[in-house]
Structure formats: C-alpha cells, structure tokens
Amino acid sequence: MNNGLIIGQYVPGESLVHRLDPRTKITVIFFFVFIVFLANSVVSYSVLTLFALASTFTTRIPIYYILKGLTPVWFLIVFTFILHLIVTNEGNVLINIIGFKIYSGGVIQGFAISMRFFLLILVTSLLTLTTTPIEITDAIEDMLHPLKKVRFPVHELALMMSISLRFIPTLMQETDKISKAQASRGVDFRTGPLKERIKAVVPLLVPLFVSAFKRAEELAMAMEARGYQGGEGRSKLRELKLEKRDFIIFALFIAVVITLFATRNY
Amino acid sequence: MLKNCSFSIHENEAVAIIGHNGSGKSTIAKLMNGLLFPQEGEILINGQPVNAETVWDIRKDVGMVFQNPDNQFVGTTVQDDIAFGMENRGIPRDEMVKRIAQTLDAVGMQDYRLTEPHKLSGGQKQRVAIASVLAIFPKVLILDEATAMLDPKGRKEIMNTVTMVQEQRHLSLITITHDLQEVVQAERVIVMNKGKVWDEATPRGIFARKGELRSIGLDVPFVAILSEELRKAGVPIMNEVLDQDELLEELWTSHSTM
User: Fold this and answer.
1) What residues of A are in contact with residue B70 (Cβ under 8 Å)?
2) For chain B, which terminal residue's Cβ has fewer other Cβ atoms within 10 angstroms, N or C?
3) B113: closest CA among B141, B76, B147, B88?
4) Contacts of B56 in chain A (CB under 8 A)
C-alpha cells in the first residue's frame, strides 16, 4: 500500500546536479529567478536558456518526465503568449483578421514573457526533481542559521518539517484505512451532490485528527525518552559539505550573470 | 496508580513485569525513565536517584522501546532514526556512523540503512527502535509492551533479537507485557495487580499459580492449561511446563518409565 509513494517529485539519481550541495542549488536558483527578469534581448535570453537547458540535461532525468511535470503550467504559458499577442500594439501590423490586429511587438513581447515564465518553472522544478525534501530542509535550516541571533526558532522549524515529511506516508496510509472502514459502514465518498460529499468527509477527518493528536503525544514522549532536549548541544548525522563541484557551479553561474549583463540590450 | 511497590533488578538480569491493563506496569516503566516522577518514595538507577536534575543522565542509561512502532520513529530513514538519540547527546558524526552500522548488525537490519519507515513492517520498525536505543549503550533496556501491536511473526522476531542483544551487551532487560507467553524467557517475573506487586517468582513458579493468575485477569497460555487438564485426567506430569517442547518432553518420558 502506497509503497511507490514519492514525496514531492524527487527523481533519484547520481548526476552532478543531484550530488550538488542543496544550498548551492537553492542559492543559484534563487538568484536565477531574479536575473530572468533582467534579460531583455535575444542574446541575453539565449544565455539564460542555454544555462537552464544545460542544467536540465545534466540531471539525466528523462525530458518527457520533466515536460509531463510541467503540464499544468503549459496552459498558463500559452495563455500569457496569447494575451500579449492581443493586448500589445507596438511595431508593425503583421496580420489583420477582421479588425483584430496582431502587431510584431506583440509577438516579440509574448514570446519573451512566455519564455521567462517557462525558464522560471523549469529551473525551480529542477530543484525539487533532484533534491530530496529532507535535503531541502537541512539546507533551509543551515541557511536560516543567522536568524538564530534574533531568536528565530530555526532548529524547531527544521525538526517540524522533517517530522511532517516522515509522517506524510503514515497519515496517508491511515486515511486510506479510515476511508475504507467508513465506506464499509456505508459512507459514500464518491457519488451524490457536492454538499453530501463534503459532509461525508467529516467521519474521515475526525478519526484522522484524533489519531494524529495521539501519535503526536506518543512521539513527544518517545523523543523525550531518547534524550531530546531541544537544539542546544546536538550533533548532526546529515552534514552539508561544500565540495569543489559546488564552487565550480558558483563560478559558472557568476559567469552566466556577467554574460547576461554584458549582452543586455543587444 | 502504584501503591507500596518495591523491588530491585540486578545488572545483567532479564526480568518480566506482567499485569492486566491498569495494573500499573506501564507506570513503572515511565518512572524508571523519568517520564513520570513518584509522589513518594525513591527510584534508584545504578545508585543514582531519579529526579528532575538527574533525569538526562538517567535516560542515557535507561533505554525504552514503546508499544506503537509508528509513533516512536522520528527519522525519515532508518539511519536517521538511529542517529536521533545520538544527536541528542552530541555524539560526533564519525562515531555515529560507526555505531549505526554496529547496532543495525546487532538487530539484523543491516540491509535497511536507508529505508523509509513506511516501507518497513511493524517488527522491523521495532527492531530499528531497539537498535536506536542500543546505539547509546544503555545499561537497562525496557520494552514497554513492545510486541503488543505485532503479528506472531514480528513478535518472534523481536523476542529473538532481544535475547541475542542481551547476550552480546550484558544489559538488564525489563520486559513489560500482559502476555504470559512472553515471560518464559525471563529469569524472574514480577506480577502486578491493582498497583501492587502481587507475586515475584521464576516463570515456573508463576505458571504454577494458574487459577489465581486467571482471577487477576491474565490469560494463561494454552500449554499450561493443557498440562493441567492432562494432570487432572491422570497423566503424570511432574514439572511445571513452560512451552510445547517441555510438555512433549514430559509426556514421552512419563510414558517410557511406565
């Protein structure tokens, strides 16, 4: 039951992108999201596209899998394109369909914005495709570390995230079990008017919440019995270490940024 | 919950505490680990009293495995879970890696180091729980109904693991249970009833008091009932039998002497 469950959309692998420190990936992608908005010429867009595609191919994840993951976004990308096509009226008239004029500026603008959108989605999904949720959690904990000085509960936040990740499959199995138990008593989850179906969820949620609270209580006791006293003085099994490859990727990314600035307006 | 309750458990001894629901047996476990504190009286672990100041030291010496395999699994993988207790005590990383391999070997789970909890059976999860306790080298291992939620196969797995571990590590083992079947391997049995120590004896001595055990709400194992019925029917069974093999032994030797 639920054995093939993958949290998020992580695809296991051994590629360079997989092995990069999650902090490197998060940092690069964070800045990439900003510089995408700075591109304004064919050359600068090409530089970014080249970078994005190169990273995509390095992951060795099948392209069709990535494209499939983007399915819900295709609509938005196409919609953006069409919107710009209709709304923008700069440049020369290209086609004139019964009063509707499509301008060359509209095509260029539409293409640029959709491209920007596509690059954003592609690169950010690379993060979740190549990084396990627990790695992302570790990276976030480490990167938020400076906030500890202002008493931000960094360790607690990370622990909460990792425990949630650990219990997602457990609670899903439980939901499955409860819904079967309730269905066997005649609760109908699938048919009937929407109002009835929403009502049918109540006998599912109540036992689920009750058991979740019970679990929480027992887990807290087990953690205490195993000597948990908060983040102070704890050591860590999962260590994040910056390797040579991380610095190379940083250097490469800086090169991309510089090229981008140099090729703007071309 | 507990009234007038006093006993001592020695180093390297296997003791079973048995009792009906609400007899106070789980309370004993929580008292030994500082999860609860007594209103009156004192609990000494290794000569050290359990109180709010010593509780973190006590928990280093007293490891505990609880009933529900799911609700004590903290890590996202087996190795992370074993590491949790060690991380709490600030053990350096190299040492943790070494101990994870050692303890997984000890409970026979070496192939599951990176497995996620939802892919393990109940028995396997409990073995991981035992491993994570062993990783901090406790002097006392308490199993608080650790097999109650497992199927017979998982139960057997755990009992074997525990016996093996006790031989290797020489720790005091305290098994808390409501199942008379599980006290067989213990050296000494403490029977609890209504918050008091009802009896303290060897498993054989306890089994001899079948009728009374039933009156305090414990299920007497089938083998014990069978041997009693046989005796009533005139079959000479001299010793109190603990399991099927012993009964078999009794039966064929009694016939051969006839």
Assistant:
1) 170, 215
2) C
3) B76
4) 227, 229
Q: CATH topology for B14-205?
A: Rossmann fold (3.40.50)
- The answer to whether A162 and A238 are in contact (CB under 8 A) is no
Residue A251 contacts B, CB cutoff 8 Å: no
Domain containing residue A197: 151-225
Most confident of A14-28, A176-190, B11-25, B242-256: A14-28
Q: Are residues A256 and A126 in the same domain?
A: yes
Residues of CATH 3.40.50.300 domain(s) within chain B?
14-205
Span A86-96, pLDDT tens digits: 888 888 888 88
Task: Let me know whether A70 and A104 are in one domain.
Answer: yes
pLDDT exceeds 60 at position A2: no
Spatial contact of B132 and B85, defined as CB atoms under 8 Å apart: yes
Residue B242 is which amino acid?
Answer: L
Tens digits of per-residue pLDDT, A53-66?
Answer: 999 999 998 888 88
Q: What are phi and psi of B201, to 5 degrees?
A: -160, 180
Is the minimum CB–CB distance between B116 and chain A shorter than 8 Å?
Answer: yes
The answer to whether residue A38 is domain-embedded is yes
B118–A221 CB contact, under 8 Å: no
* A7 in B contact zone (CB under 8 Å): no
Interface contact B72-A134, CB threshold 8 A: no
Which of A222, A234, A238 lies closest to B66 in CB terms?
A: A222
